[in-house]
């Protein structure tokens, strides 16, 4: 198994443009394998992020592409998202995703020191990584309300669920790092470790609850198509605003 020390994680630039198609293909393939949604991005969009110095890319010791993540800004720079985190299948479960998240987080803090950094995820593993960086679970109302951001969810298989909830909740869990008002990483990490069993069960309940109206609708229509699926309050309250 590969280890973090065997990878080189760089700020992407024009020399990496040829990897854009590979990255997009792997993002889509990974989402399909997990049965989760994804906001699709074109190779041209990924290349733009590389040119702007708003992405990080990872290679193994033999120069083989291993992972990627990029930065997006919303609401005139008030919010920053670390998006499109992907690790090539051959290099998963070796700590690379965590290393990439740390690198893109540091880059975001350098480029946008006053901005709130947020993310949406359906995975407990990513929630764990975010918690170790100081992110906290929040309601969707604390994220950017920029229509351009939410428009990016239209290509996600769960978009109908998002709109049925009036953009107030969906299958993803929202997490936020506010540089002006946040818990320390030690606190958020400890919270996650203490509650991860409960959170995992609640994630399953949330997904089941959100899918029920759509499964019922499909059944009534005789269709064979299935739907694929203030800061100091208790952190658990933020996760499941059903």
From TrEMBL:
This is GNAT family N-acetyltransferase. The keyword Transferase applies. Keywords: Transferase. One of its GO terms (molecular function) is transferase activity.
């Amino acid at each position: 198994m590969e280890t973090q020390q065997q990878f080189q994680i760089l700020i992407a630039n024009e020399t990496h443009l040829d990897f854009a198609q590979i990255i997009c293909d792997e993002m889509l393939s990974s989402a399909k394998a997990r049965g989760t949604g994804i906001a699709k991005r074109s190779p041209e969009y990924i290349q733009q992020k590389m040119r702007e110095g708003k992405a990080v890319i990872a290679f193994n010791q033999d120069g083989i592409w291993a992972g990627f993540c990029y930065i997006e800004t919303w609401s005139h720079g008030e919010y920053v998202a670390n998006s499109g985190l992907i690790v090539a299948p051959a290099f998963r479960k070796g700590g690379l995703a965590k290393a990439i998240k740390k690198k893109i987080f540091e880059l975001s803090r350098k480029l946008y020191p006053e901005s709130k950094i947020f993310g949406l995820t359906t995975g407990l593993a990513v929630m764990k990584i975010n918690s170790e960086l100081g992110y906290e679970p929040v309601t969707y109302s604390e994220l950017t309300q920029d229509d351009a951001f939410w428009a990016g969810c239209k290509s996600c298989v769960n978009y109908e669920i998002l709109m049925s909830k009036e953009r107030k909740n969906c299958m993803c869990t929202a997490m936020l790092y506010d540089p002006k008002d946040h818990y320390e990483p030690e606190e958020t990490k400890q919270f996650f470790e203490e509650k991860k069993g409960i959170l995992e069960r609640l994630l399953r309940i949330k997904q089941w609850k959100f899918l029920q109206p759509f499964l019922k609708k499909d059944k009534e229509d005789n269709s064979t198509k299935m739907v694929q699926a203030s800061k100091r309050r208790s952190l658990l309250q933020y996760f499941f605003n059903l």
